[in-house]
Amino acid sequence: MRLDVVTIFPEYLEPLNVSLVGKARARGQLDVRVHDLRQWTHDKHNTVDDTPYGGGPGMVMKPEPWGEALDEIIASGAEGQQPVLVVPTPSGKPFTQELAVELSAKPWLVFTPARYEGIDRRVIEEYAEHLDVREVSIGDYVLAGGEAPVLVMVEAIARLLPGVLGNAESHRDDSFAPGAMADLLEGPVYTKPPEWRGRGIPDVLLSGHHGKIARWRRDEAFRRTVQNRPDLIERTDPAAFDKKDRETLSILGWGPREDGRFGRVAPDVEE
Asked: Global pTM?
């Protein structure tokens, strides 16, 4: 997979040289190219921004350097190959595990992390006419720039590529991963030693009984989801819950509502 990032702070992307992403780059699984947007400016101050039309606070990134940068990067691809343009912005669609999986199947992504008040809208409109453009938000908050979201998205996408994780099964039970646990957060995990500062681990994990362990993990996933993300259970198709799931939810004070979906139907209980 090829990843291009255009930024005015190339040094911000240095973490892409370490950990799993760095190892994937070293093995040739990821071709990451970081570009300094100021290379496509033509004045002595390397200006990339200007005041917004219509007034208002802040500055807006100019279309000319972005257009030149993107044209050159797109032209550098193989004949007939076009990238997906990923635009980090708080006004974009939420970045989810589902989207990470979708993007991990694409051969080429170009990220455009902006600063100030964002990029002149005409740039997005221009490239949306002939590219797959995704405006994406990593959360309901505003950062100083789009580089941190790029790091988040690249790591989420890269770990899904074949061979990047040491254990190919590692991401199967992740929170939000497609599959049987897709609507539940991942439960707690433990490792050696069996006792630490007077705290042990659940006996079931030492039992060797794979069925009981799987059930315990699912029950704990329900507990954590009810506590931290109840909306995930509320929007889940009740058909996804088996008899044991429903028993666990009942203990946690949850049950079917009039619309058939599950919701809290009893006072809070210990979670």
From this structure: 0.86
